[in-house]
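From the shared-data thread, chain only:
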Amino acid sequence: MDGGTHETGFRNGLTKALRGYIERRGLLSKGLPGITGEDVKEGLVAIISVYLQGEVEFQGQTKGRLNSEITSQVEAVVKHSLEHHLNTHPTLGDQIANRVILAAEARIASRQAKDAVHRKTAVSHRLNLPGKLADCATVDKDEAELFICEGDSAGGSSKQARDRKTQAILPIRGKILNVETAPLAKTLANTEIQNIISAIGTGIHPKFDYSKLRYGRIIIMTDADVDGAHICTLLLTFFYKHMFELIQKGHIYIAQPPLFRIDAGKKQFYALDEEEKDRIVDTLNGAQCEIGRFKGLGEMPAADLKQTTMNKTTRSLIQVQVENLESTRLTVGQLMGKDAAPRFKFIKEKAEFVQNLDV
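Structure, as tokens:
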């Protein structure tokens, strides 16, 4: 036989009987969360034989696994009989219970040792990380965030504003290489791109390995001006061309730092652009206010940067998504490709719609 419903009932009854006995006798230590079926079965050899009347159901043509609905019947018999035996022979019951508890302790110790190896591996991997990276403490990919910001000044402010446990900061030097027009060898030789690849951990295609991703969120955090938008575009082009799976699986984000701060008495307001600033001022109904424009993330006080851009409960992020692959491919080629003619045509067609031009 290859098992079946009778064995399932036997295991369930065995586990429930021993778990109940251990709890009633108060044998479980506080550091042990509970007993599992695997703990009860550890080292156990048992034979179970059942007799069925009427039509018997088996799985498959080989009839090696019993499918008849007898799980609950077997479970009830085993649980009742074993509980009675353990309670009437407590010395033997305690010996069996202690053996089960020992198996549970060994299981937990094994899991903790495995977790320790994972943590050690993750920490040792950091020895190869770029020197400018201020890494986070957690090795849980789902909690970890990587902020890519422009320049050491912005990096300094970001480090003061971050949550050290879950947020890592990687400053890059200005505008990275336009990888849409650069050959792969030149791309890999670029120091800033090397640092990004090293920090993220996956490598790039054709040797991209998603399982080595170190951060659940990769957040592009640039200044709220034209240069910042250009750097953001270059980074998006890099992720699109060499780490597209990160975009597909929702790991790439764009931060939304404010351009203005409006102080009205004891209240502070933040605006992403001129339009939002004017709208906020209008809502103040002529009340006296002071308007300040941030020159960049490096000039923004850490408290403002944290509240507006990095705090998970108050910030606003844009998740990068690709809705149409063909349209995206054409747009990237048009705006970032070698041929300037499509770009010139695009600028001519869109120039009349530009409302805010930072020159």
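The longest strand covers residues 145-150.
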